[in-house]
Amino acid sequence: MTKVSRNTWTRILQDRYLYLLGLPGMLYFVVFKYAPMWGIVISFQDYSPYTGLWKSEWVGFEHFVRFFSNPDFFMLFRNTMAINLLNLLFFFPAPILLALLLNELRTGLFKKSVQSIIYLPHFLSWVIIAGISFQMLSQTEGVVNKLIVSLGYPSVEFLTNENTFWVLLTLQSMWKEAGWGTIIFLAAMASVDPQLYEASKIDGAGPFRLAWHVTLPGIRNVITILLILRLGDIMDVGFEQVYLMMNGAVSSVAEVFDTYVFRVGISQGQFSYSTAIGLFKSVVGLILVILANKSAKRLGEEGVY
Amino acid sequence: MKNRKFFVFALAAILLLTVILSACSGTSEGGSKTGTGEGKAAAPTKITMLVPYFSTEPPTDDNVVVVEAEKRTNTDLKITWSPVATYEEKVNVTLAGGDLPDLITVLNPFTPQVRKLVQQGAFWDLTPFFKDYPNLMKFPEETYTNTKMQDGKNYGIPRVRPTEGGGQFPYIRKDWLDKLGLPVPETLDDLYQVMKAFANNDMGGNGNTIALAGPLDFVYNVMNGTSGWFMVKDGQLVHAMLEPGTRDALVWLNKAYKEKLIPQDFPALKFITARDMMAAGKVGIFSDTVAEAWRTHQEQLKVNPKADFLPLVSLTGPFGPYNFRDTGHYGMHMIPKSVPEKKVRAILQFMDYGASDEGAELGSYGFKGIHFTEENGMKLTTEQAMKDNVSQQAFGQLFINYDKYMRAYFAGMPPEILERNKQIIDARAEISVPDPASGLYSETKVTVGPEYDKKIDDLRTKIIMGKAPIEAWDTFTDELRKDPKFQKMIQELNDSYQKRVKGQ
After folding, report:
1. Same domain for A117 and A35
2. The total number of structural domains that make up chain A
């Protein structure tokens, strides 16, 4: 034991300048990431900004009990999970497929321009995308509906239909982020050994065989890592997107944890309650990440740690 | 080799130093002393403030009005101006931070945050002070009553506003009415007939005239004879959503929806989009304030010189003629307990000057001859006012007096419209109905209120759109009547109301 620690110290002493260089970064994490974590204690308090962290009354699990016994808890849970599972099922593979298609393109200019165009929506804020969606799909003003009506069909309620709201959200996410998501997969594909392609080609593999047996296995570890990270966010739904697209007609399928926290917690000044919900989300996310990581390792993948 | 080592060390040291320095710089500013030496009458009183601005740019410290106000009141103002769009968050953060300015403007004094701080004694009770300040005493009684906290005391100087002309109430295309030979609607039934006439005759052209757009709350209000979600019945405060008037309003709106008199996707239609449609001449009736009616009117005049947008005086429902009566305030200026009494007096003196005619003129209009000219009693602002950032939206947020007709006026309005608006406001004052629950306190409402509000609102939307039958409303309200939490909330609000009625 002492030997190990002495070794460690010698090594630290040896690389002291490197550690010194790393110090600002470490300080950053301590000051801005680890220290604020103590803030979660307010989820066990009846926190008031005026009395502060030290003097606020302790209430134990009261906020958690209130949250779980809320009749809307199930609805919030269902909506959050449904939106995320749809995302996982359709939105997550979308960039991989796109990247596979782009990977087949060898000519520079066409590939570059396609890439630029599909990256573009990523830089638009959700406010703009919600605005565009409205301009396109609204029944009173929307271009799409005007077209449908002019063709003699009744107008379609895209924005106020409970049954299609989740689909609408998923399609929006795909439109916005699928292109940007290809970057990491394209980078991974670039590192696949070209010899493998050549060997397969000699064995008579066509483009589909190549994609299935060479490219995809080649980027498998990247896919796994991204999937694990994605699972960690399963309780988060992009607040802005849902908040902007929500309206009275669809709110029973649109209300998720994040919008609930904003409406009931933050705007009512109930910081403790908000923090309790946030903590619950984080714990679920952490458990999922750990489980996914374990199963990935069991399947022979690398995992995130 | 040695050189390189030195370089790495130097770099690391510099980086570290930067971190330390940037961490320090945050604290050095906040430590500056507030307050001035006592007894020296000549020295200007230093007052720090947090105030919202509605103009595009905040007034700077050397703004002519700020400098003049300092000179006239012998003060040294340190004002933090914060844009109104994010003002509420700014206040929340400031309150949470604990380092409060001498005067903090709160736009909604009844948020749980502010209430809690008041309960904990964080602000001065100004009730006993007001009587010494004649200009502040000129504010209407209603303004003071409606800014009282749950203990019946005033913890701030009200930002006075007129009671009439502020609510979102229908204004109508008078030129369309004239074209169709219809009178101005007086009841909800009249209004419905007008809506049908507008739609059937396609007054907006293009075959998709929308008869009524914008906020629909007025329908519930007229049907219940109250403003907002609460009403007084036999001296008791009751929830208006459980009353038959609300059900009637839902039936009315559902019928209008089915006949395509209101936008088919109204829950998704943003207020601003609907307003633009009104301005573009596609909509016949829209709900907004008297002054805002002129804004859309003005836009439509550019393409159609005959357009006339008339704000309605009232609509008659089962409880008689109705229009919305405002609370007479838009928040208040609060003084933290950390400010010594002597300074509280100085701040009140300063605000009292702002409430005088002279002070208010300076605050909103600047200097006569430079920033505005006067023509038949109307103040016309000059370009210099724009350049110097002199307006009601800037320093006028701080210095303001009580003007009954404030909401009749909007920049660029011709005198005949102003005159008509003044008459409308006078006529409304006779019949207008306030929100009885404004400023009332219920502990239960803080925790469960927003959830009920949302459920009620969602179901209303579904019923109007025909996605749920009206019977669903009956079942829902029956449940609410039996819901102990919901009943407790109403009970607490009623207690709070009774307290206020008895003048405690």
Report:
1. no
2. 2
Scan for tokens 């403790």, then name that residue.
Answer: A272
Contact A23 B12 (CB under 8 A): yes
Q: What is the pLDDT of residues B74-133, one digit of tens each?
A: 999 999 999 988 888 888 888 877 688 999 999 988 888 888 889 888 899 999 999 999
Helices (H), chain A: 2-14, 16-29, 52-55, 62-68, 73-86, 93-104, 108-119, 126-137, 143-150, 165-190, 194-202, 207-210, 216-218, 220-232, 239-245, 251-254, 257-260, 271-298
Last residue of a domain, one of B352, B385, B403: B403
pLDDT in tens, B146-204: 898 878 889 999 999 998 888 899 999 999 999 999 999 999 999 999 999 999 998 88
Structural domain contains residue B351: yes
Beta bridge mates, B309: B173
Residue stretches of chain A with pLDDT short of 50: 1
Tell me if chain A has a CB within 8 Å of the CB of B443.
Answer: no
Question: Average of pLDDT values for B293-308?
Answer: 91
**CA dist., res. B162 & res. B424, Å (int):** 14
Counting one residue from chain A and one from chain B, the pairs whose CB atoms sit within 8 A come to 110
The pLDDT of B16-36, averaged and rounded, is 42
Same domain, A167 and A226: yes
Cα(A147)–Cα(A135) distance, rounded to whole angstroms?
13
pLDDT at site B414 = 84
CB contact under 8 A, B18 and A24: yes
Task: Assess A140–B contact: CB distance below 8 Å, yes or no.
Answer: yes
Residue B30 has pLDDT above 50, yes or no: no
| Residue A183 shares a structural domain with residue A256 | yes
Mark yes or no for CB contact B122/A270 under 8 Å: no
Q: Assess whether A78 and A28 both reside in one domain.
A: no
In a domain, A105, yes or no: yes
Longest Cα–Cα distance of chain A, Å, equals 84
Q: For position A116, which CATH number holds? A: 1.10.3720.10
Q: How far apart are CA B14 and CA B425, in angstroms?
A: 67
Which of the residues B206, B265, B282, B455 would you substitute to probe the A interface, choosing the one with the greatest number of A C-beta atoms within 10 Å?
A: B265
Sign of the CA dihedral with A65 first, then A68, A72, and A77 last:
positive
Asked whether residue B155 falls in the same domain as residue B174, the answer is no
Sign of the torsion angle spanned by Cα atoms B93, B95, B96, B101: positive
Within 8 A of A28 by CB-CB distance, chain B residues are 19
How many CB atoms within 10 Å of residue A237? 24
Structural domain includes residue A3? yes
Segment B35-56 mean pLDDT: 74
Residue range of the domain that includes A35: 1-60
Instruction: Output the six-digit token pair for B262.
Output: 């209101």
How long, in residues, is chain B? 504
Report the C-alpha gap between B493 and B482 in whole angstroms.
Answer: 17
Is the pLDDT score of B28 beyond 80? no
Residue B36's pLDDT band, with cuts at 50, 70 and 90, is very low
Q: Inspect the interface and report whether the beta carbons of A155 and B120 lie closer than 8 Å.
A: no
**B461 three-class SS:** helix
The pLDDT score that the predictor gives to residue B25 is 42
Q: Among A21, A138, A251, select the one facing B454 at the smallest CB separation.
A: A251
Whether residues B99 and B72 fall in one domain = yes
- Is the predicted pLDDT of residue B21 greater than 60, yes or no? no
Q: Would you state the pLDDT for residue A3?
A: 56
Nearest to A248 among B12, B23, B457 (CB): B457
CB contact under 8 A, B9 and A23: no
> ipTM more than 0.95?
no
Residue of B nearest to A17 (CA): B9
Contacts of B26 by beta carbon, 8 Å cutoff, 6+ apart: none
Q: Considering B385, B403, B421, which residue would you say is the last residue of a domain?
A: B403
Which of B7 and B235 is assigned the larger pLDDT?
B235
Say which CATH number the domain at B127 has.
3.40.190.10
